[in-house]
Amino acid sequence: MLETSARLLALLGLLQSRPAWSGPELAERLQVTPRTIRHDMDRLRELGYPVEGARGPAGGYRLGPGAKLPPLLLDDAEAVAVAIGLRTASGVAGIEESSASALAKLEQVLPDRLRRRVATVTSALSAGPVNTDSNVEDPEIDPAVLSRLTDAIRDQEQLRLVYEGERLDVEPYRVVTWQRRWYLVAREVPGGAWRALRIDWAEISTMPQPRFGPRPMDERDYTAFVVREVAAAGWSVHARVTVAAAAEEVRARINDAVGVVEAIDEQTCVLVTGADSIEILAVYVGMLGLDFSVDSPPELVEHVRLLGRRYAAAGSGDLHPGDEPDRRDDVQHDRRDVHQVG
Questions:
Q1: Same domain for 253 and 291?
Q2: C-alpha pair distances (Å), 300 with each of 11, 127, 237, 290, 295
Q3: Per-residue pLDDT averaged across 235-263, rounded?
Q4: Domain holding 227: CATH number?
Q5: Three-state DSSP class for 203?
Q6: CA nearest 276: which of 136, 143, 175?
Q7: In terms of residue numbers, what domain contains 221?
């Protein structure tokens, strides 16, 4: 019985390691007869594993989709990778709780040597805060919303949503994560214009929508498209800044994802950029290392003036307790309060 049980586990591990196996291949790997393999396949089916088989020269065995999730067999490296990955999952609402539950189940069945390895790695590593460049809390995506989007992409189903007060019908193509934000790449219906939509800004209908014939962009272009679109229109706060430098010099100092540079003349250009808050935007613009003036928005003008007073006081050494510049000029910004439909 022990030999049979061990052989079944080995057989299951082989089936999970690649899409398909022939009967003779499995018999040779396990050093049994093809008849024994057939019997073992029947045993696996009785245990709930969805083993599919086909006869003939091109036939063989594979694990198909089942009605429930059967136990999985992982090799040492896979088990350690999954355990460490579960400890660092974030960005989806409830993912920490689900990851902790899954990790507890995994660690319970890990061999002692692997449990010690996972414990050693995780105890020796520390992760600093992920969001160190923003004073705005990272959004979390509802798993049900993420599933709705990916199901629609798979089924080539249109989506109906409300985005920043605008009702849209779109054809979904890809979900892209970038800088701790989630974006849906989609075509507008009608019209066909491509959009990169912040998922946490969208109210997505759960009602079924019509199917569409896909008109995708190249697989390699989705992420690049999101980066370009976010630079132009995907931030919570946008600004237009006139810079006292040639457009080529400004472009050399920024990433394409930071903003769009438009030349005015040989010595002046306009930078259209954005960020998740006025405070971050003021810092980014100051890091250009070039003279500039803020055209819009007025809130950024006021915050740059406030920073100017603070830096001037710091540079003069005249700041004393109680003499800090008036904080009433700080601009407070209400965060978006977005609710997902369904």
A1: yes
A2: 65, 33, 9, 17, 9
A3: 85
A4: 2.30.30
A5: strand
A6: 136
A7: 143-233
Question: 201-213: per-residue pLDDT in tens?
Answer: 899 998 999 999 9
Q: How far is CA 229 from the centre of its chain?
A: 16
Residue 79 CA to residue 77 CA, distance in Å, equals 6
Cα–Cα distance list, 36 to 7, 11, 52 (Å): 10, 11, 16
Residues whose CB falls within 8 Å of the CB of residue 165, separated by 6 or more in sequence, listed in order: none
Q: What is the pLDDT of residue 109?
A: 67
Strands 292-296 and 259-265: unpaired
Helix (H) or strand (E) holding 43: helix 34-46
Q: Model confidence over 281-319: pLDDT tens digits?
A: 888 888 888 999 999 999 999 999 999 888 888 887 765
What burial letters (b/e) apply to 188-221, b meaning 16+ CB within 10 Å?
A: ebeeeebbbbbbbbbbbbeeebeebeeeeeeeee
pTM of the model: 0.48
Q: What SS3 state is found at 116?
A: helix
